[in-house]
Amino acid sequence: MTQSSRQHVNRALRELEQEGILTLGYKKIEIKDPSELERLALARMRRNA
User: Fold this and answer.
1) Where in the chain does DSSP place strands (E)?
2) Of 27, 32, 34, 47, which alpha carbon lies 20 to 30 A from 17's?
């Protein structure tokens, strides 16, 4: 788990919501496009390796 500020996490989540990858709700995050979320995560891991 990374240590990130609440503001940074909220910004990242809002960006993913705007891209249609997930939906944010009260105490809930719905992943609408798991394959795209995985693709983004893998790309970020490769970039940071």
Assistant:
1) 22-25, 28-31
2) 47
For residue range 7-20, list pLDDT tens digits in order.
999 999 999 999 99
Domain tally, the chain: 1
Strand partners, 22: 31
Tokens found for residue 38:
């995985």
Give the structural domain span for 18: 6-48
Distance, C-alpha 4 to centroid of its chain: 13
Cβ atoms of 23 and 30 within 8 Å: the answer is yes
Please, what sign has the CA dihedral across residues 33, 38, 47, 16?
A: positive
